[in-house]
């Protein structure tokens, strides 16, 4: 294989491994599988999920899985658009998500959508999330009765180059930690 073909194969492999990692996150959270959820992250990763949790990923897993187990009978995390910028052993991704749930008590259904902004790192040959920011952009009238006003606990999205998806490197403000 010539150098160009090898470089293309490496890039395709990296992109596939990164996308698979995003998919493991969704499966892990929807199946309440802590090990699978954590397999998407490096052990020292940080997750900023706004009003749900901001802090170390192991603590995030405990909080979010208990929340979903307590309040929802089923959850579905869908990834739609996915963009990946590779730069050696670092990658920045933007994955649009749709979240839908069946609650254990009324209101029976909720939906929200937004984006997962991730900084991936390849460490010892393994791609995983180092830092994640969850940006909520649309919520149903139950979670967001005043429109976007209820999203203030999340990193704000903008429709210009000030949006957090443009930050390089993507980092989480440690002052936002809730844990």
Characterization of this structure:
It is a single chain. Helix content is 27%, strand content 39%. The chain has 179 residues and is an alpha+beta fold. It has a 6-stranded mixed β-sheet with strand order 2-1-6-5-4-3. The longest helix has 28 residues, at 3-30.
Question: Could you give the topology of this structure?
Answer:
Layout: H1 3-30, H2 34-39, E1 41-48, E2 54-56, H3 57-71, E3 72-87, E4 90-103, E5 109-123, E6 126-139
List its traits.
179 residues, 3 helices, alpha+beta, 6 strands
* Class derived from helix and strand content: alpha+beta
Low-confidence segments: none
Q: Using DSSP, what is the number of strands?
A: 6
Which sheet architecture does the biggest sheet show? 6 strands, mixed
Kindly report the oligomeric state of this protein: single chain
Gyration radius over CA = 17 Å
Return the average pLDDT rounded to an integer: 94
In one word, what is the shape? globular
Helix content bin? 25-40%
Helix-strand string: HHEEHEEEE
Task: Report how far the terminal alpha carbons are from each other.
Answer: 49 Å
What's the tally of helices? 3
Which percent band covers the strand fraction?
35-45%
Strand order of the largest sheet: 2-1-6-5-4-3
Summarize, please.
The protein is of the alpha+beta class and 179 residues long. It has helices at residues 3-30, 34-39, 57-71; strands at 41-48, 54-56, 72-87, 90-103, 109-123, 126-139. Strands 2-1-6-5-4-3 form a 6-stranded mixed sheet.
